[in-house]
Automatic annotation (TrEMBL):
Belongs to the BCP1 family. InterPro entries: BCP1_family. GO terms for biological process: protein transport. It comes from the Eukaryota. One of its GO terms (cellular component) is nucleus. It comes from Ceriporiopsis subvermispora (strain B). This is Protein BCP1. It is found in: Nucleus. The keyword Nucleus applies.
Amino acid sequence: MPKRKLHKPDADSSDGDGDDASDRSLVDVDFEFFDPNPELDYLALKRLATQLFVTDAELLPLHDLADLILAQPLVGTTVKCDGRESDPYAVLTVLNLQVHQNNPAIKAVIEYALNKAELDPAFHAALQGLIGPAGLASQNHVGLVFSERLINMPVQVVPHMYRMLADEIQWAIDDNEPYRFTHLLFISRIYRLTPEEEAEMQEAAPRNKRQKQSAPAPAPSTPGVYSFHSEDEDIQKIALHSLDYNFTRAQPRGEEAFGLDMGGRMMLVPGASLPQLVNVLQEKYSAPP
């Protein structure tokens, strides 16, 4: 049985340029929320992890990361559209970096995060104190938030996922499981637009009927830099540190480069701020079931 079902009409435009109802059709989609399933979800979670780290995915043992996510099925949520046996379209979970510090994937992610944080001395110092050698031996526990979804998944699934994650963390704490996090580390993705690309996007937006049916994209906190996930802007607001970075394996971009100029984003949030984040996301993005 799913944890919960969310019913959302997804707008799909037909031929024609008018804005009246005759120019739009609605496709009903049921999103079901499930615990991660070790027997069914491995390949899909590995693909989502590859999508999250983009060209740097080859630097990390993502098979170990997928196995670790699936080893704790009572914490975390997947979203599916075609029942339990189908592939997840989205996943949200949290991994304890202290508890799993000897796992190959966690070792690699810690090294990766510390390396990227060198661009920001204050952020790097904070991470060293939390997940550097001394930090890993301390009483501080950092949760790595793993959140990724397919590009066409609506943001309305996110509040439910975060609310369920907060509930499951609390239930785990009540059972004396190691989920009492002092900090949460988010790793996400961004893309960058040139002024010319931004102008083209703004010009095309009024003609995009599908975009008008979804939550509006928030204005970027840094000009030309956009989040793939709308909720990242809300996470940034409560973060102690936030850093956008280039991928290590990114190819140099020339004038004729094809595709988006993509990068990564890390955010460090106090663990106690998770309920606040849940409330913000529910207020901004929740859709009626």
